[in-house]
């Protein structure tokens, strides 16, 4: 772990680098070029390109038929999943739906001062795509935290893409969660080629209107490059957490949250900022005490070595300023005056308040989506929400009285902008 105090000479330089912003080119030129090549190839050759990349990257040979999960595979998954898993999925989905229903936008209408009736209408997308990463762990919760929001919003067609193993199988619990979350089609395709197939379509895959879900660097870059061909939710990359705490915090709990985040492996980021030297010392000791007892210690150690930082700040205000500059995906705020410091937080994707608010509860079952902005994109994006599965259309209706009251201003704009037909289109409707 990188451990720095505000008294260290390297501290200011390191903290300055934490002021992140997601910018074009952040993935690196090599990743950009690889992803651009994959997208162009899928656009040109469709299924053939998707199958080739899937065999190259995942060791799986697909056909137009086998790329889709069959009803038999779904039935097999339902039969093999344990009851405790089904209960956990049901709890998570129930809370997601309850949260989603409260956050969805509602139709409304009103009259402006001239009497024109204005309003908004919200309808679900017809067909969306959700991406669920594969890799080292079956992210069952990610299926719920994407597709179940679309299900709650009433999206009739949800295409899910997730990589299968070399044997062509998808983890049964993940498959079960996808179906329970409303997936109407599931393809065994991951990576940039999976995103391209959903966005552009192939002979076998009908294109979607919007893509949701987290992924690795290649997946995120594919989503970024395909904006315009398709809409996207946000740019959620490798997972991250920042813990801001004062002397009141429990070192055991903080260490456990840091290790839980490091368990994601890969390019995960784990941060801890405190104004208490004693707490920092205790947390370091707790990490060394707890890590050897965990099954994924190897992956955890890699993240602790290359993706973890601990900062001893001069004040708590400074720790909060670092948080706003860093824009973490998850923020754990463990301080004595929670509401006061909560008011100072502006850029975190999800905020966990108090010593008992374990990030893992939010990741799995609390209700809000764990698909959140990473890499500094929290300064521009918010996390996945149910209203992102809704289209918005404005509504305008008027009568003769409203037309007359609006006419003079419209004719003024038409004259200033040199668009006399605009003015005429209104005046022709007004009864003299």
From TrEMBL:
Alphabetically ordered keywords of this record: Metal-binding, NAD, Oxidoreductase, Zinc
Chain positions recorded as NAD(+) binding sites:
131, 193, 216
Q: What processes does the entry annotate via GO biological process terms?
A: L-histidine biosynthetic process
**Cofactor(s) the protein needs:** Zn(2+)
The cofactor binding remark recorded in the entry reads: Binds 1 zinc ion per subunit.
Q: Which domain of life is it from?
A: Bacteria
Any GO MF annotation of the entry: histidinol dehydrogenase activity
**PROSITE patterns in UniProt:** HISOL_DEHYDROGENASE
Pfam families linked: Histidinol_dh (PF00815)
Binding site residues for substrate: 239, 261, 264, 330, 363, 417, 422
Where in the sequence is the active site? 329-330
Q: Name one GO cellular component term.
A: cytosol
Instruction: Write down the InterPro entries for this protein, in alphabetical order.
Output: Ald_DH/histidinol_DH, Histidinol_DH_CS, Histidinol_DH_monofunct, Hstdl_DH
Binding residue positions for Zn(2+): 261, 264, 363, 422
- As recorded in UniProt, its EC number(s) are 1.1.1.23
Concerning PANTHER family, the annotation shows: HISTIDINE BIOSYNTHESIS TRIFUNCTIONAL PROTEIN, HISTIDINOL DEHYDROGENASE HDH
Q: NCBIfam families, from UniProt?
A: hisD (TIGR00069)
Record family assignment: Belongs to the histidinol dehydrogenase family.
Provide the protein name. Histidinol dehydrogenase
Lineage of the organism: Bacteria, Pseudomonadati, Verrucomicrobiota, Verrucomicrobiia, Verrucomicrobiales
